Amino acid sequence: MLQGNSRFASGQAEHPWQDLETRESLIDGQHPDAAVLSCSDSRVPPEIIFDQGLGDMFTVRTAGQTLDDAVIASLEYAVTHLGVSVLVVLGHQHCGAVASAVAELDAIAAGAGIDLGAAFAAEVTDSEIIDPATDDGLPENNAASAAEDGAESTGDDDFETAGRIDSDDVFDKMEELIEASESVLVRSVGASVLAAQEAALSDTDDFERVHIARTIEALVDRSSVIQQALAAQRLSIVGARYQLETGKVEVLSF
Question: pTM of the predicted model, to two decimals?
Answer without folding.
Answer: 0.81
